[in-house]
Design a protein that fits this description.
This protein is an alpha/beta fold and 501 residues long. It contains 12 helices and 19 strands. The protein has 2 domains: 274 residues, Glycosidases (TIM Barrel, Alpha-Beta Barrel), CATH 3.20.20; 120 residues, Jelly Rolls (Sandwich), CATH 2.60.120. The site of beta-L-fucopyranose has 6 residues, from loops.
């Protein structure tokens, strides 16, 4: 009993020593820096957010009624009247598909507010909706509470309507609005600041007082993550739903600089680097990047994409809703590449999620359950060249994990079944509570004569998913070829995705 207590205390101490920011000294050599990187960990709020996997955006506002993507702030807001608005229908649709959090565009670049803000007339209080008595931020917050999912707000720093934009007074206006959102709607789990920063109604640009805004959020809603022009969550750099194959959550501290974030953001409507699937910056956290850093931070990627071509609802896109198969592919290239998916589902002019979107989401959710309910690896006899807690990889719990002895950075794990098994998906999860470490791995099967490598990868992080042609075998070998410190595996899964269905 006493011994267990001491071990637990030592573990708690060791964990307590791991931080989400680590400085690098001028005298640190490469191996010291890499060992430091392997010990950088998420903050509790980043940890909770990462495990959500699936989060949703609801882009809704005056653009929905003017059929635009970016309003200029001069829109006639008397057009805003979603007659059948039902925020519970929105939340139910995403919850049933497995989504764990929703973010509402409380204010987009046009400055129109979905809540009756005291600080502007450009808000829902001056629209026909519920005779000016409506509050859609409240309706969404209440629906999220009812269905027990997280709730977040998108508040665009860029405001093309407010006359104070471009002066210090705008920063006060923004603080006032943030205060309303963070004090009147219960718990807020994510605050989303867009990187887009253009000119205001008088042609001026604004210098945002981000530090004051972050401090306010930390004071009023300390559990909320701040994305993507923010310190907790980083924009992956594309709006295509396709993250990097090599995605590190530990980056040089300079990656969090405001200027750096802003320089990578979208500059013009419909000119998104992402549409082509390319990135400004493919490599954010390799060894080569880290050795020149002055400090290291945990700064994970969020992959945002819309279920339709646009962010807002447009009737002419009703037939362009992503199919369940496309959504599944996006799950593989976002969550399956060490990111969190932020999928936008825009409500229509009635204030409902259109039926095509509801259907696609439901079928995606069903398929997720089908694929991931049966981990074929669970039934195997497993051995490893080194390391302990093999069973922890198949127990469905992220807090238990397999690892090798300290300093041992490679290992081979072999799985054997009495009869042939079939699978075409590999799912790996590191125990990121102790850091992200794996740099290279490969998977082989034994065809009766020899080992045949059939898939490989680099980073794992929170989750790595790989899809390949169906393998039929009795013996599989998984090798970790390189790791920044002793690797961990919280979960190891092999699944069969039957795409013919
Ligand atoms: C971009 C915005 O300009 C788009 O309208 C949308 O809100 C997207 C999520 O972020 O930067």
């Amino acid at each position: 009993m006493k011994k267990t207590l001491i071990i637990l205390l030592l573990m708690a101490k060791a964990y307590g020593q791991q931080k989400s920011f680590v400085p690098i000294a001028k005298t640190d050599d490469e191996s010291t820096i890499i060992a430091k990187a392997a010990n950088v960990v998420p903050s509790p709020r980043q940890m909770r957010w990462q495990a959500l996997e699936l989060t949703a955006f609801f882009h809704f506002g005056i653009n929905t009624f003017t059929n635009q993507e970016w309003g200029d702030g001069k829109e006639d807001i008397s057009k805003f009247n979603p007659q059948l608005l039902d925020a519970e229908q929105w939340v139910k649709a995403i919850k049933e598909a497995g989504f764990k959090q929703a973010i509402i565009t409380a204010k987009h670049h046009d400055g129109f507010c979905l809540w009756p803000s005291k600080f502007t007339e450009h808000s829902i209080k001056n629209t026909p909706y519920k005779n000016g008595k409506g509050d859609i931020v409240r309706e969404v917050a209440n629906a999220c509470k009812k269905y027990k999912i997280g709730f977040g707000v998108y508040l665009s720093p860029w405001d093309r309507n407010n006359p104070s934009y471009g002066s210090e007074a705008y920063n006060t206006y923004f603080v006032n609005q943030l205060t309303e959102l963070l004090t009147q709607y219960g718990k807020v789990d994510e605050v989303w600041f867009d990187g887009a920063n253009g000119e205001g109604p008088n042609g001026k640009k604004q210098i945002y007082d981000f530090d004051a805004w972050y401090a306010l959020i930390r004071k009023l809603q300390p559990q909320a993550v701040i994305a993507v022009q923010g310190p907790d969550v980083r924009w992956v750099g594309t709006e295509s739903g396709v993250g990097r194959e090599t995605e590190w959550s530990v980056l040089p501290t300079s990656e969090k600089d405001q200027e750096k974030i802003a320089s990578l953001s979208q500059k013009e409507v419909n000119v998104i680097p992402a549409l082509s699937g390319s990135y400004e910056d493919q490599d954010r956290g390799s060894r080569a990047k880290l050795i020149n850093a002055t400090g290291l931070v945990w700064y994970p990627a969020e992959t945002d994409v819309s279920i339709r071509p646009g962010w807002f609802y447009h009737i002419n896109e009703d037939a362009k809703v992503k199919t369940p198969k496309q959504l599944m592919e996006i799950y593989f290239t976002s969550v399956g590449r060490n990111g969190v998916l932020l999928l936008n589902i825009p409500p229509n002019t009635n204030g409902m999620i259109a039926s095509n979107d509801v259907k696609s989401l439901a079928a995606f959710g069903k398929e997720m359950k089908n694929i991931f309910s049966n981990n074929i690896a669970k039934a195997a006899t497993v051995k490893a060249t080194s390391g302990k807690e093999l069973k922890a990889m198949f127990d469905g719990r992220l807090s238990t994990y397999f690892t090798t002895p300290e300093r041992e950075t490679t290992t081979t794990i072999e799985l054997n079944w009495p009869k042939d098994v079939r699978f075409n998906v590999l799912s790996l999860q590191e125990n990121i509570a102790v850091g992200q470490r794996i740099e290279k791995f490969e998977l082989a099967y034994f065809d009766g004569k020899q080992w045949i490598n059939f898939t490989s990868g680099t980073t794992v992080g929170y989750k790595r998913l790989l899809k390949f042609d169906t393998i039929t075998a009795k013996k599989v070998r998984f090798k970790i070829l390189s790791s920044r410190l002793n690797p961990t595996l919280a979960e190891f899964g092999l699944y069969l995705w039957d795409e013919s269905k």
